[in-house]
Design a protein that fits this description.
It is found in: Cytoplasm. By secondary structure, this protein is an alpha/beta fold. The chain contains 14 helices and 17 strands. The protein starts with a strand and ends with a helix.
Amino acid sequence: MSYKRLIPCIFIDSGKAVRWFDDHTVLSDDVISLAKYYSGHGADELLVFDLSESDEDHDEAIDLMKKINRVIHIPMVAGGNVKRQEDIKKILYTGAKRALLNFSKADNQKLIEDVSKRFGKEKIAVSLNDFDALFKHQHLINEYASELVFMHRLDLNSVINVTDIPCVVLTDTMEESELFKILKCSGVRGLSGKYVSQTDMDFSAFKKKCEEEQIQMTSFESMMDFSEFKTDANGLIPVIVQHYKTQEVLMLAYMNEEAFDQTIKTGRMTYYSRSRQCLWVKGETSGHFQYVHSLTIDCDKDTLLAKVDQVGAACHTGNPTCFFQPLVGSDYDETNPLQVFESVYDTIVDRRDHPKEGSYTNYLFEKGIDKILKKVGEEATEIIIAAKNPNPEEVKYEMADFLYHAMVLMVERGISWEDIVKELADR
């Protein structure tokens, strides 16, 4: 099943959201609130463009991207004012899922190989203004990019004959019939532009219209029908809710079939209240929404585990979790920072054992120990350079980069975190 996504775009100029590339009429003075609106009202992804020309304005836009990523609960793809590898690095450090290279600029056509090898093919997208550019540079795009962004509607049926890379179409048309035609093209994974970027956009209503046109818009699809679950006499199944990052158990609630379907459809946790006997969306009153990352069923098919991104507190008391009243227990350390390192380490091992096309990690393993050592040395040097900068954020990012490359070296040499921890403990 090919799901389609609605992707509003934000054009940043002088710290404000403007209407279009060539129309710098201010759409919103508050870029962060606009991004938050899109995220909270059904957008599937966000496309952010920096229209700045100076380095100073570019740094301001980068800072806004960081702030945007902290408040949204959907992926972000960002680009604009890219001149060198360092600009791609800055964009990715904002938390962007991918950095966007504008292929109307010849310098970016030269840059794509270097940034793809450094950061991974899956981190790079390419924007194009015409079909000729795709045809001319298809070998570069196919090898070094994972997504295309077309700046207006092209002959999309011809596009799919040139490349298998999924594309997003950014268009200024406001005609729904034209938008449906775009979304029905097999190579199109998402729609962006003026229509879906309206400041009062009703994403749910438009998705319903798309479904009436036989366009599948749902981001989630259950592998099992609700009828296969073992529910109680009232048709309810308990749901254990866990934070997807910290693994902290947040709450326990119940779903009926309607609540389950609504959760799948919207990506927000929706439950059935046994006391009020009605559906309720977590956060609808408080703003403390729960955004779905995964739903898993247990071996008996009678309990669901939901891993979510929790906004604010999960408990109505204001506590982060409903489970805050101790009954019995002994003293122990509840923190486990090693868990994060182990998770990244395991991912690196998986990339080595199960290579993925376009993966930067696989690229390092393929090049061998000398390349890995070179990158470790480079990242160590960048820590030193960053430490001279009064902004501590730079040090944080560079140290994270260094630790990742150090872990690649650990995997290459068969050293585990357990080995490192034991060595430190023995000192």
